[in-house]
Amino acid sequence: MTGAAPSLGTVLREWGRIGCVGFGGPPAHIALLRKLCVDDRKWIDAQEFEDAIAACNLLPGPASTQLAIFCAWRVRGRVGALVGGAAFIVPGLVAILALAALFLGDPPVWVKAAGAGAGAAVAAVALQAGTSLVPAAWKRAPAKVRWALYLGLGAVAAATVGPWLVLLLVACGVAEIVAQRVPAPGRRRVPALPLLAVGGLGGGVLLPLAWVALKVGALSYGGGFVIIPIMQADAVDNHHWMTGEQFLNAVALGQITPGPVVHTVAVVGYAAAGLGGGLLAAAIAFSPSFAFILFGAHRFDRLRAAPAVRAFLDGAAPAAIGAILGSAVPLIRELTEPWQYAVLAGAAVLALALRRGPVLTLLSAGAAGVVIVLAGGSLPH
To answer: Any transmembrane segments, and where (predicted)?
Structure first.
């Protein structure tokens, strides 16, 4: 550490501030954490911060959340990681649960119209998220043909098989280990925290909800939009906790609120089992991120240097990017009104051609939905 260690109160305040103003997803979170920890307070040197970004990207789940927890761990140890991680997550969680109560209840017409408009634009935002990752990933791909194959498989799986996407991501990683002839890593003890979050739950809706949340937090490589087809298949098709239109609203809410996109799982939990379900889903989904840092941060250098880990990510990472791109297909299938396709086209221009951020794109689409419905357009059914 290059600067004096902060107090826990400082960690709570500064990480909470980032949690409140962190609109725009991982790029915004990383920039804010760097400014705080490296540039302004000099708690972490630049090289260590860049290494932490790389290590967090090797882990499943929301990388920017794990980076926030790591930075807090680095400056104040395990207690700091718990305080800083919670402070980073809670503001967005409170916001998205409040909006879930509004959008999933019996809202006024203009709120329904805003949700229908923003939901129509979600597929365009997903395509923007995926395409933005392609150039850098392609450049560092060790085998271009296999990389393209994994990308295509991920896209097809996200568009078709939904909840089985996780198995495809793991299969691509294992296939790349075999292709690179890297010895498989030895067995390691898995932290018990994520598993304990599921154990002890009763049947009914809570156990399947816990499993969905665990997949989101512990088994999804790439975070963000990779988790969308997994959640959509379970929440809409398998368990019928919410309609397709409500799921689109949930994804839009996860984009326009501060904090990580994984907050979307809290809306799914709210739809399944009310406020308690939302809090349970969020707790389980974020538990692996805390476990990875609390029990594994001191091994980050070894993780990055492991050939088997690198090879696995060479296969799983392009499949995850493909899954982000493929997630647009089931999202588009949920649109029911002709005007929503027009809003989607406009959002595609904003997001893909003009390269505007997801918050502006979704807010513009929501405003368009309000105007169209108030002018006589039909609400989705």
So the answer is: 82-104, 116-138, 150-178, 190-212, 218-236, 279-297, 359-379
Give pLDDT tens digits for 308-353.
888 887 888 888 888 888 888 988 998 999 999 999 999 999 999 9
Q: Which residues contact 185 (CB under 8 A, 6 or more apart)?
A: 306, 308, 309
For the whole model, what pTM was predicted?
0.77
Task: Provide the 3-class DSSP secondary structure of residue 139.
Answer: helix
Residue ranges of domains in the chain: 8-90, 91-374
State the alpha helices, DSSP H only, in the chain: 8-21, 26-34, 46-57, 63-103, 109-139, 144-160, 165-179, 193-198, 206-218, 227-232, 244-256, 264-296, 300-305, 307-326, 328-333, 338-348, 358-374
Which residue do the tokens 């939904």 mark?
162
Query: Per-residue pLDDT tens for 229-259?
Result: 888 889 998 999 999 989 998 988 888 888 7
What sign for the dihedral angle of Cα 361, 327, 333, 245? negative
